[in-house]
Amino acid sequence: MSLPATSAWLPDLLFTGARFESGLALVADAQGTILRLSREPADLAAAQRLSGRALLPGLVNAHSHAFHRVIRARSEFRSSAQRDTFWTWREVMFRAATALDPDDLLRASRMAFLEMALSGITTVGEFHYLHRAPNGRAYAEPNAMALALVRAAREVGLRICLLHSAYARAGWRRTPSPAQRRFIIESPDEYLTAYASLRVALASDTVAGLAWTGFAPHSLRAVPPDYLRAILPAMRAHAAPVHMHLSEQTDENEVCLAEHDTTPIGLLEHEGVLNETFTAVHAIHISTHEAVALARAKAHVCACPTTERNLGDGINPADLFFARGLPVALGTDTNVQTDLLEDARELEYHLRLKYLQREILAPAPAPEVDSDPSALATRLLACATRHGAASLHAPGGSLELGRAADFFTVALDDPALAGADVATLPAAIVFAGGRSCIVDVVIGGRPVVANGRHPQQAAIVGDFHALQHKLWAHL
Ligand SMILES: [Zn+2]
Known about the structure:
By secondary structure, this protein is α/β, with parallel strands linked by helices. The chain folds into two domains: 1-57 and 397-444, Roll (Urease, subunit C, domain 1); 59-355, Metal-dependent hydrolases (TIM Barrel, Alpha-Beta Barrel). 38% of the residues lie in helices and 20% in strands. Strands 1, 2, 3, 4, 5, 14, 15 and 16 form an eight-stranded mixed sheet that branches. Helix 3 (102-118) crosses helix 17 (457-472). The structure holds zinc ion (ZN). Residues 63, 65, 127, 245, 281, 333 line the site of zinc ion.
């Protein structure tokens, strides 16, 4: 299906980055790139009218492991006589990781991506580490699993940044568990060969901005410095996004100190890994000094508050990052709940519980100026949109000339939003909005969700039911 030469949409209200405005049409070219926000009568007359709706830039999910969707609600029980933690949860995740073949991964990730699209997400950063067959051998097509993820995104209609994970070992002085055999690519050369071949396979999708690659050294427990050094020249040459799990757990900091006599961020700074392409995923247990090092490098942070509270990881110190101008992106990570607006509000709410105060991440009011009731919500929306796009090098993230026409609309008469006015609507969406409000999702000018439904929804959900039955019925 080809698009007309230009497409235009006219909602009741359109979010321009700081506020909602009325009487503005969004006009895009045939490639789905924004040409202008327009008040010209000809554009308004030609636009598709989105009555009763407000239009916002598409949400960018900067950190996902799509296959974790199969363990949703299957790790909410006491598994240990001691205490349940991230590490006991990881055993459940490993069990799922050993069971999935490329076709299963396609079905699981199609489900995860469908739910993302229905919740207003238009781009996903998929942090992929399930590379090999369950016996630890490479598939005949070494990127079979990565290509299944890309296919799932294409079938749903999402943009995907495939963050191809390097995973060299189980940890310092640890032998891999059977599940980890699927993750491990022992040789940096083999990793770089697989990465290069994935890049070639996605070349035409990359030109179209639909699918592209990034580097993902999994974590310092999985990727020691000599491996990092071996892949660093390729990371610099390609200038692609580089994502790494960092300081999610206090234990990993302690092991890093024991092995390297420095903190994870100290080590990465020393190795020259930190720069503007780098995103520290989680970065929970870090010092002010480390936040300063990330800011100095112009790096990014990706917080995943829903997952972090589900796993008992800790509270993301977003106040440290905001104070230093570090852009914070958001991720759904384990997909235990897929709602990036929930992640946005939790970024603030968790800090309120920590400090017993309110409005922690809000800008201080200017003297003699009325407070903007949506100043905090606008900052949190930036985390869910433009900061994610910057972290992933994605073409969407804001409704500006030259950016992708990726957006979603909300119904202004949804009970969750009813009563909001122009000034309070951003706060209503961030603090009370969710999937029930979302009407349309458009990616690159093409409709993906209409009237809150995806055309493949019933088939994808039915297929996922069958997959879950296959995976878990015998247990
Ligand atoms: Zn993760």
